[in-house]
Design a protein that fits this description.
It is a single chain. The chain is an all-alpha fold and 50 residues long. The radius of gyration is 19 Å and the shape is elongated. The protein has one domain.
């Protein structure tokens, strides 16, 4: 198993990071997240109360 992983590390890494990207993209673009993401866009413009 370790030999196969070492021989195919490039492909394995590519598939791992592509899968991670897909999960994050699906999570970010789900319909329920729109309101939460919309509230995040104003964070840099919010006044500092401190």
């Amino acid at each position: 198993m370790v030999d196969w992983l070492a021989n195919n590390a490039g492909t394995t890494g590519l598939l791992f990071f592509f899968g991670t990207f897909l999960v994050i993209a699906i999570w970010a673009f789900r319909p329920k997240a729109k309101q939460q993401i919309e509230s995040y866009k104003n964070i840099p413009l919010a006044e500092d109360d401190a």
